[in-house]
User: What shape does this take?
Amino acid sequence: MTWTAALVVALVIIAVLAGALWRQRHYQERLKAQLKAATADLEQLQNACSRLAPAGVVQRLVADGIALDDAPGAERKVVTAMFVDLVGFTAMTERLEPALLVRVLNGYYQRVSDAIEEHRGQVGSFVGDGIVAYFGAIQPNPWQCDDAVRAALAMRAAIRAYNGELEREGLPPLAIGVGIDRGPGLAGLMGSRARREYAFIGRAVNLAARLQGLTRIHQVDILVTEALRAELDAGFVLVPMPAEPVKGFAEPIVTYAVRGRSEPHQDRGQ
Assistant: This one.
């Protein structure tokens, strides 16, 4: 083979290798794009599903490869239930234009939801201007009662700061009532074929809602039951309230108003 022929063969080989390298690189880039698109689709699906069920539930179902329709049924658990409601919401609806009212409400929803999630709780549902939340429903949490009360105190601070923002806009301040109880019940995805929500069914949810109503009577913003008080650490400052009859319960209910904490709290279980 002459030198010229050898050079031609070498150039051909180089061209073939370069073409193969280009095709391989193009194939890898296409795979990366497809993987990125699939990841984005999965994140979008998880975000959409998390509006029907808490993120922890959705992540567990995805990791186990379980469809929502095939999700396991409810489990018996001891859960801390919280009910949060706006005080004077009806009067507010009459004073504010719809668009402005929605903006104010969304600010309230966000701040309360943040306080719940930052203290290992899960928002169960929005009921009008009320919010139902659970602590210890998805994963075991031996400090669920402490976490719930800490979340309520964080809400108090967050709403106080939010009222400063509203005042600067000439808007009326918000006030909340929070009821918290602890007890056994059923927790899991529940609902129809068309729609499911992660929910907790038990006496604690009903009583938490009733306690939220009692905050108006006792003129306080956070009330807890005797069952929950017994599980709290000694750092919380509680004031006993007179027993009050509560619809749906045979005996008057003893409650405790939460004033705050008497000492710095060390976060546990982080």
